[in-house]
Structures are given as C-alpha cells and as structure tokens.
Amino acid sequence: AKEESYEKKKLYDKKIEQDIYEINQFDSRLSDNEKDSLSNEFNDNKKTDDVQEKEKIEKELVAEKHWSLKGEAYGYNRPKNSILNLNFEIPKLNTFNNNNTLENKNVGDMENTDDDDDDDEKEYASEDGHNKNNNTNSYKKKEKKMNTLNNEIEIVVKQRIQNMLFDDVEKKTIEDIELEEFNKNDEINFDNLNFSKSKISLVDEYTQKYQDEIMNSQSKNKENNLQKMEIMNLFKKIMHACDSLSNDYFIPKPILLNNKNNKMATLNIEDSVPMILSDKNKKTAEEIFNPQHMKQQNELTKDEKKAIRKSKKMKKKKKILNQFKQTGSSINQLVKRNTEIINKNKKNKDQKINYKKYGVLSKRSHTKY
C-alpha cells in the first residue's frame, strides 16, 4: 500500500511539472514578441529624438553668436542698452586685505532679486492663494521702484559719459607711495639729525643692525622652524619606507668556485692512451706540405709542360678504361677507337704543315690549281 501511494505521488508531481513547463513556454513566446515590438518602438523614437537633437545642435553651431561671445565689442557693434541685460563680474580692490576680489553686479531690469525672492516666498507660504490681488499689487509696486531706480542710474551714467568722468583707478607704484609718506611731514626737524661723527666704524654699525635683526627674527621664526623640522623628519621617514619597498629584492648567495661538493655522483673512467705515435701525427700541416709558388703557363719550362701533358694523358686513359670496363665492351673496340684517333691527329698535323708551307691545307688542292 505504501509503494502504491508513493508511485501515485510521483505521477502527480510529474503532471504538475509538465503543466508548469508548458505554461512557461507559452509565456516566454508571448514575452519575446512583446519585447521585440517594444524594442522596435523604442528604437524608432530614439532615432527620431537623436535626429532632432542633432539638427538643433547644427543650427546652434551655424547660427551667429551673441555679441557678448565675440570678444571686444564697441557701442556701434551691439544693440542699444544691451549691456544692461547682462550679468558680469567687476574686479573690486578690497581695502582690508590686499586681495583682488570679484563681485557680481546685476545691471538692468531685474525681475526678482534675492531679497525680493525671500519676501515673495514668505507671502506665498502664508496666504496660499487667498490674497492674490494683494500679491499682484505688491509685485507691481516693486517693479515701479526698480524701474525708477534703473532710470536714475541711466541718467547718472549718461551724464558722467558726457562730462568724461569715469573714476578710473590709477595704478600706484612703490616710488609714489614712498614719496607720499616722505612728504607727509613737509617740515624737517633738524633737532633729530645727528651731525656728530660716530665713534664706531661703519662695519660695526652694520654688524649691530644685522645682529639686532637676527635676534628679533629668531623669536618669531622659532616656532616655524620647529614645525619645518618636524615636517622634514616625517617626510624622510616616508621616503625611507618608499625606498625600502622599491629597492628590496632577493639577492642569491655567491657561488664559491674553489669549494668542492663531495656529495655529487661521479664516475672514474680511465682513457686508453696510445703507447706509440707516428711521425705524421707529430708534424704540422706546413711541415707535411710546404706551400710553394704556383707557376703560370708562361713561366713553365718545356720539361714541366711535357710532364703536365703526360699526366693529363694518363688520367684520360684511366678514365676511358674504367668506362669500357663498366660497359663490358671488348679490347678490339678500344683498339679501333685508338687507331681512329691517331689517324685523325695525323691528318690535322699534315694540314697544319701544308698551311705553313703552301698556304693551303692539303697538297692535292694546291696541285689542281
């Protein structure tokens, strides 16, 4: 009974797994189709957006730039009162600290300043749209105030331009400052001047001044020097650590050449030494064959020429005999060959002699004519 119930459970589980697998396949097919459609739509929209953005950027690049971006612009090169609509930086000298600071100056019609924005936020937060008419009235009043202020500024600026009063800051040199300080007291007090000769020499006076300056400066610079020493010591430690990291590497021990290792496996073999040596092995190559002067054909004598010719003939005979032996031909053939060669040589000799005597190769030809 237990085995039957176990088999039934197995069959039931298999059916459930098959159903789930079929459902997943159906869902995957649908999801793939939907994804493809969505991806195509997204790609089309993206392409259109990219094309539109490119067209906008191209138009901006091709179009003329604003006059404020073209460098130095004169009044006749820009529209009237156009500089009042710009926000630009004016360098202003700070009298307390001699540092050049830049302050943003908003010139022209300003719809909302920082203070106005704060006030507007408070009003909108408190009323929440119930008192819209009051807000509009207050906003109009502020606009009127700003317009009147701007008009007054324009009048002042135009009048100064007509009168050539620009209030430009003139640069001061060190010499001018020294002259001003010196000329503050126009009257000279002769009582303070010492016309008597000093008992100390100039060298002693300069040394005293130098010592006073050093003694006064030591107390001021003592703390700075201590801090510098601490910084230098810390920097030296850091550099030492960096050098140790970069320069430390493995160095093997040197090999001792004279030290013999007796633990190595060795073989003792006796070589067979010859008891008797010939004289040829003892002699050098020059002693066996001395290099001589090789004579040319013009330098040879008659006897030497005959010997060379004889040696050539002997070599040729040996070569011919070896050829006949290899082919297996008889001696009669060899004799015939030799007789033919001898007769041929005789004819050639006779022709040469006749040519020298009569100017003709043969006697018969001479007798006919």
TrEMBL record:
Cell compartments where the protein resides: Nucleus, Nucleolus
Short name of any one Pfam family annotated for the protein: Mpp10
Chain residue ranges for the region called Disordered: 27-53, 94-144
Acidic residues bias (residue ranges): 111-122
Keyword field contains Ribonucleoprotein: yes
Biased composition (Basic and acidic residues): 29-53
Record-level GO BP terms: rRNA processing
Coiled coil: none
Presence of the UniProt keyword Repeat in the record: no
Primary residence: nucleus
Keywords: Nucleus, Ribonucleoprotein, Ribosome biogenesis, rRNA processing
Entry's Gene Ontology cellular component terms: Mpp10 complex; small-subunit processome; sno(s)RNA-containing ribonucleoprotein complex
Residue spans of biased composition, Low complexity class: 94-105
PANTHER family for this protein: U3 SMALL NUCLEOLAR RIBONUCLEOPROTEIN PROTEIN MPP10 (PTHR17039:SF0)
Family: Belongs to the MPP10 family.
Protein name: Uncharacterized protein
Organism: Plasmodium falciparum (isolate HB3)
